[in-house]
Structure formats: structure tokens, C-alpha cells
Amino acid sequence: MSLKGIELQIAIPKTFEAGRMAEQKQQQSQLHQNQAQLLNEKELLKNRESVRHSEKYAKLDKDSKNNHQDHEQKEKKQQLNEEDKKTMHPYKGSFVDFTG
Fold first, then answer.
1. pTM (two decimals)
2. Are the C-beta atoms of 43 and 51 separated by less than 8 Å?
3. DSSP secondary structure of 37-95
4. What is the mean pLDDT of residues 18-43?
5. Which of the 8 DSSP states describes residue 4?
6. Is the CB of residue 25 less than 8 Å from the CB of residue 33?
7. Which residue, among 63, 13, 49, 29, has the nearest Cα to 37 in the 3D structure?
8. 1, 25, 38, 85: least CB-packed within 10 angstroms?
């Protein structure tokens, strides 16, 4: 396949244009990757420096733990009261006389 002089006049400038466009696309994709990396680094830095909890939620968590402990204590007291009620007989006394 041989090219004639007229064909070369058209083909050579188009190859330069195509090469330039390919280089621009490559640079553009590299630029996008760099920008994405910078945004990611900024977000990581922001997350490291920011406070991750709020006092409001900390108080709620603390209150829920206290409520849970209070509930457990109430259940234990009720169980002890029920055991005391079970040991007492309705018409027999609680005193045992060993003398005699």
C-alpha cells in the first residue's frame, strides 16, 4: 500500500491531530484522578479532626444504661420479696421453740 504525495498531505496533519487529542484525553483522565485523590485526602483529614460523637447521644446512652440497671435492681427486689412471701406461712408462726 503506497501513499501518493496528495494523500500524505492530508494524512500526516490528521495523525498529529489524533495524537494531540489522545494526549489531551490522557492528561484529562490523569487530572480527574488527581482531583479525586485530593478530595479523598481532604475528607479523610476532616474525619480525623472532627468529633464523632455528640453529648446528646452520650447522655441518652448513659440514661439507657442507668434505666437498664434500675430495672434489673427492681426485678431482684421483687424476687427477694416473693421469696420472703413464700417462706411465710399464712397461719403458722415463724418462731420455733427448742426449749423443753
1. 0.39
2. no
3. HHHHHHHHHHHHHS----HHHHHHHHHHHHHHHHHHHHHHHHHHHHHHHHHS-SSS-S-
4. 93
5. P
6. no
7. 29
8. 1
